[in-house]
Structures are given as structure tokens and as C-alpha cells.
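sry for the spam today, last one i promise. C-alpha cells for design, 275 residues
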């Protein structure tokens, strides 16, 4: 089986897992996203295992990230009433500062900032996905929002790739991601708009909401992909992992969705006047 076939099969399996989690039970969604989050944290810290300049504390980073995700998730009451429980969160945020004492790095601030970055980049973005899932809960979890976000992110990623192969001549940001092109980005944008209309028809949703969402999701998804590409360039690796054949690691598969989630949640709140 060629690489495209492998990508298709495993990509389909990955989508099936996400959809099953959304439809089965809200606790399953919480657990599945939590498992992806943990795998993402492990991948993130493995990126730095051969780095001479940056050596973040893997144990503190992973355990702290897991704690942050679960505390925030368990204390979430509704999408607009989230109990951050500062007595638990605030000490955790200061824990990495102790690394300045024990770090053997000549510049321990790099280690500390990497740990804090990982907590924002991974647990908080997966937590944002849960907030999207819980929106308008009222004893009914709104899977349409989170599923729609994933579909639009994947549509943008797929068609940006295809249009890039077909028409790509002008590089988007060559020093970070040489294969991305303006033609691919534009093709992905309009394809995502089209998919938003189709999705609104299928789920019976507000087509105006989904068109605006697509207009936000498409460029933000590209930024998320570029952020992951930059991290891999810093650590001099091709893929964040190998857990998904043909795709790489969890961060390779979730990079765009992770960055989109907080912005999409913010858009939902704005659109439905929940601020």
C-alpha cells in the first residue's frame, strides 16, 4: 500500500475514533481527548531529548499538564461558567519556577518557559475542545460544534494540500514550511467555506454561523500547522511521533485543531452573545 493509501486508512480510523467518542457519551469524549492530550505531551517532551540547548523537565511537564487538564475539566460546570479553582491552579503555574534551582542548564529560563508553553499549547487547547463540546449543555452535549470544528479543520488541511500540489507556486512561509503555498491556502479556504455550507445542511444548523466559523477556522488552522512546523524545526525532527502511520504523531494530526479550538470557542461565545 502506498503512502496515500496508508494515510487514508489510518486517517479514516482516526476520524472514526473521534466521532465514536462524541456520540457515545460525554465521559468517553473527556477520556479520549485526555488520552490524546497525554500522548501529545509525551511527544512534545520527546522532541527535546537530543537538544543540548533546551532540556525541560519531562516529569514536571507531563504530570503538571495532565493535572491541569483534569482539574480544569472536572471543575467545568458549563461553557460560560468555568470554575478554575485557583487554589489548585495557581501553585501549579509556579511549580516550574523551582526548576531554576535544580536545572543544570546554563539558561534555565529556556527550560521553564518550555514547560509553561507546553501547558498552554496542549492541555489548555484540548480543554478548549471540551468547552466547545459542553456549550449549551442543558443536559444535552452539543457534539455538532466540536464535530463541525474537526470536519472544517480536516477539510482545510486536505484541500490546502491538494490545491498546493495542483497549483502551488508561491511559497507561504518557506523558511518554516517549504511545501505550503498561497494557492493551497486559498484553495483550502474556499473549500472549507463550501464544507461549512454542506455541514450546516446535514446537521440542520445555522449556515451563516458555519460560514463565519469556516472563515476563521481556515487561516487559524494554517497558523496552528505553522507553529507545529516551527517547533519541529527548532528540535530538528521531521514528525512529532510515529503513532499514526502515514501521519506521524498526535501533534502532527492535531496541530491545526489545537490552535483552532480556543479561537472557535471564543467565536461561539461572541456569536451567541454569551460574554
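last one done:
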Amino acid at each position: 500500500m502506498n503512502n496515500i493509501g496508508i494515510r487514508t486508512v489510518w486517517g479514516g480510523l482516526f476520524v472514526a475514533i473521534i466521532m465514536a467518542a462524541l456520540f457515545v457519551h460525554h465521559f468517553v469524549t473527556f477520556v479520549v481527548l485526555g488520552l490524546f492530550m497525554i500522548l501529545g505531551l509525551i511527544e512534545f517532551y520527546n522532541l527535546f531529548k537530543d537538544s543540548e540547548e533546551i532540556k525541560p523537565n519531562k516529569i514536571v511537564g507531563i504530570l503538571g499538564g495532565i493535572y491541569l487538564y483534569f482539574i480544569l475539566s472536572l471543575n467545568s460546570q458549563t461553557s460560560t461558567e468555568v470554575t478554575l479553582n485557583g487554589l489548585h491552579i495557581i501553585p501549579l503555574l509556579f511549580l516550574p519556577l523551582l526548576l531554576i534551582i535544580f536545572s543544570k542548564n546554563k539558561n534555565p529560563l529556556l527550560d521553564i518557559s518550555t514547560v509553561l508553553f507546553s501547558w498552554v499549547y496542549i492541555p489548555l487547547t484540548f480543554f478548549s475542545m471540551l468547552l466547545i463540546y459542553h456549550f449549551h449543555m442543558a443536559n444535552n452535549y452539543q457534539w455538532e460544534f466540536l464535530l463541525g470544528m474537526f470536519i472544517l479543520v480536516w477539510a482545510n488541511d486536505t484541500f490546502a494540500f491538494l490545491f498546493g500540489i495542483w497549483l502551488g507556486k508561491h511559497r507561504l512561509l518557506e523558511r518554516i514550511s517549504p511545501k505550503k503555498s498561497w494557492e493551497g491556502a486559498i484553495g483550502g479556504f474556499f473549500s472549507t467555506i463550501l464544507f461549512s455550507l454542506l455541514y450546516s445542511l446535514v446537521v440542520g444548523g445555522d449556515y451563516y454561523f458555519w460560514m463565519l466559523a469556516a472563515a476563521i477556522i481556515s487561516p487559524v488552522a494554517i497558523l496552528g500547522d505553522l507553529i507545529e512546523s516551527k517547533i519541529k524545526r527548532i528540535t530538528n525532527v521531521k514528525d512529532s511521533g510515529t503513532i499514526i502511520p502515514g501521519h506521524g504523531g498526535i501533534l502532527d494530526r492535531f496541530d491545526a485543531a489545537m490552535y483552532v479550538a480556543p479561537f472557535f470557542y471564543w467565536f461561539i461565545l461572541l456569536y451567541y452573545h454569551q460574554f
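The longest strand covers residues 177-181. ok im logging off now
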